[in-house]
Amino acid sequence: MWRWLFEIGKQMQEYEGYVLARVLHVLGVILWIGGVAFVTTVLIPSLRRIDDLDNRIELFEKLEGRFGVQAKMTTLITGISGFYMVIFNDAWERYLHLQFWWLHLMTLVWLIFTLVLFVFEPLFLHQWFRDKAAENSEAAFRKLHGIHIFLLGLSLLAVLGTVAGSHGVLFF
Predict the structure, then answer these.
(1) How crowded is residue 91: how many other Cβ atoms within 10 Å of its Cβ?
(2) Model confidence, pTM
(3) Which of 17, 28, 148, 170 shows the greatest Cβ crowding within 10 Å of its Cβ?
(4) Which of 15-19, 23-27, 59-63 has maximum average pLDDT?
(5) Distance (Å, whole) CA 88 – CA 19
(6) pLDDT confidence of 103, banded at 50, 70, 90?
(7) CB-CB contact of 17 with 87 (8 Å)
């Protein structure tokens, strides 16, 4: 009898851990992709209207730099919690089936942003953008905006697919 109660208690604790992971995952996605949406739809278009090129670049680096800290934290939280949920559900085989395309896309979006934030940005992207903006600020910001639009679209598709797919709705 006591062993059975102990096992139920242990399972409840494990499930509470899963729920916490899911809560952190959703919160992380909201803050991360919401921030990407702000940068894409408000920040970059506003900066492109600034005529003083030096001020434009300086302001972009200050504001994007502050968001970069949030983006790094939320991608870490999202990645850790997401992989925890895959492990908890023993759902690795879902990567082998196209009906879970949203899981593939979600993981791809996370991988792209993680590489950009933790590898490419510190190694070369920051300096590359500064050099391009010094050459032709309008072209550099136009390219930056296009990349952000693409990444935001991909992210929103992943969110849409994940919410629908995790509730059993498949789009093909």
Answers:
(1) 12
(2) 0.86
(3) 28
(4) 23-27
(5) 11
(6) very high
(7) no
Q: How far is CA 120 from CA 61, 92, 125, 133, 148, in A?
A: 16, 28, 6, 17, 15
At residue 167 the predicted structure's pLDDT band, cuts being 50, 70 and 90, is confident
- Enumerate residues 6+ apart whose C-beta is below 8 A from 130: 57
Q: What number of CA atoms fall less than 13 Å from residue 28's CA on the CB side?
A: 20
Q: Name residue 116's amino acid.
A: V
Q: HSE on the CB side for 95, CA within 13 Å? A: 11
Name the residue among 33, 46, 74 with its Cα closest to residue 145.
46
Instruction: Provide the token pair at 172.
Output: 């093909």
The pLDDT of 137-164, averaged and rounded, is 95
> 83: which residues sit within 8 A by CB, 6+ positions away?
none
One-letter amino acid of 33: I
What is residue 65's predicted lDDT score, i.e. its pLDDT?
84
Length, in residues, of the chain: 172
